[in-house]
Every structure is written in C-alpha cells, then in structure tokens.
Write a structure and sequence with these properties.
With about 250 residues, this protein is an alpha/beta fold. It has helices at about 1-15, 25-40, 40-60, 60-70, 85-100, 105-115, 140-145, 160-170, 190-200, 205-215, and strands at about 155, 175, 220, 235-240, 245-250. The protein has two domains: about 1-120, no CATH class; about 140-250, no CATH class. Helix content is about 50%, strand content about 10%. The chain has a five-stranded mixed beta sheet, covered by helices on one side. Helix 2 crosses helix 3 (about 40-60), helix 2 packs across helix 5 (about 85-100) and helix 9 packs antiparallel against helix 10.
Length: about 250
Amino acid sequence: MWGIFLESVVIFQNYMGFHENGYLAGIYLFALLYLWLAEKDKRRRAIFVYAPTLLLFLFFCPLFRKVFVRLLEDSETYYRLLWLLQMSMVSAYGLLKLCGRHRRIGLAVLGVAIIACGNYVYDSENITRAENAYHLPQEAIDIVDLIEPEEGRVTVLVPADLIYFVRQYSTNIELPYGREMLIARWDYYHAMYEAMEEADVIDTDSFARLAGEYPCAYVVLKEDRQMDEPLTEYGYDLYGRVGEYLIYRDTQTE
C-alpha cells in the first residue's frame, strides 16, 4: 500500500510540475486551504472546498487506486482524475475572495503569484514564433503550394517533422501514414515509415518500390538524407527545393 501511495505522489508531482515550476500547485493548495477557513456559504463550500478535497483524498488513497485500475484495466490514465480538481476555478475564486477581505494583502499576494508563475513561452522547445497567419512552419506551406493540384488529391511522402503540418494546411495532400507512426507507445509498424525514417541510409531500390505502390506522386526529403543511390535513377526527377527540403516527382505517376 505504501508503494502505491508513493507512486500516486510521483504522479501528482509530475502533473503539477514540481520539477520545473511548482507555483501553480502552491497557489491552488493555498487557495484551497484559505477557502476551508474563510468560505461560509454551504453551496460554494461544496463546489470549491469539499469536492476538490475529496478528489485529492481519493487520488492518494491506495485502495481507491487499486479499485480504479482493476475496474478500468488501465493504470496509465489514473492521472486524469486530477483534471477534476478545478485548479483554475478554485485558485481564482480563492485569491479574489482574499482580495475582497484583505485588499492590500490580497493584491500583494495575487501580484506576487502572477509574477512567480510567469514563464517566457518561447523558452520552451515546443513553442516557436508564428511565421505566418496559419501558425505553421513556412517551409511546410511553401512545399504544399508548390505541389498541390488544382483539382483532386495527390499522395505525398514527407519527413516525420512535416507530418503534423501538411494536412493542417491542405486536405488535398494525402500521406501514406500519419501521426500514429510518431507515437512510440502505440507501437505501429509501417514498411514505408521504416524505409523513410528508421534506416540510417535509405535503400533506394526498395524505397522507390514502396513509394510506387501507393503511388506517391511526390517524395520530399531533407537535403542531408543519405541514400545508397540517387532517387533520380528510379523514375524521379528533382522538382524543386524549399529550404532544406528537396522535392522529387515521380515521372511515371500522373
């Protein structure tokens, strides 16, 4: 039981971001504690005090977790119980109530909390400045504009780093595989993906044969992608270049 409890503690810490910035969790717990002491309205206490406290108790309760996992047969989604904590509502209501009763102290605490929780969003590796109105990489847009047909659809093979963006910009571009190949825990297998992404050096013969089975009218490769033979020797011509990407067209596919 103690081991299950410690696992729940680790899940809680990861969810709350204690390893990077635990201010949001601190504000939430402070607001919840303050509402325990200050909130007198029974209906509001039920929403902002009793419900979150009960959820926290159940989350850390080893017996509840064992029942949860056994009934749902899924231990990976246990953290989703924390979605029900109403962190934003409890934090906002608690701090505003503090400001209402203790204006100067409340405003000071609220100001410090907002400043402490702030992060420069562009420090994150997952966030970049928008390059256009679509909030997509400009290279992905330029590639689609270059190969998109006026009517109908076309199948295009692109590197993994473009998969998320090409279909967002245009549904006229079809891909042999999608984002399912990029989620490691899903453990999907696709021969075309293996040939495209997993091989250190692309076996051009089998690669071109697989691409022709779909058929892929265009193949987009990074200029530094290694191949044992040039793709132009297998019925493709170099159609264009966009940044670091080379666009090959299958001359045998309309």
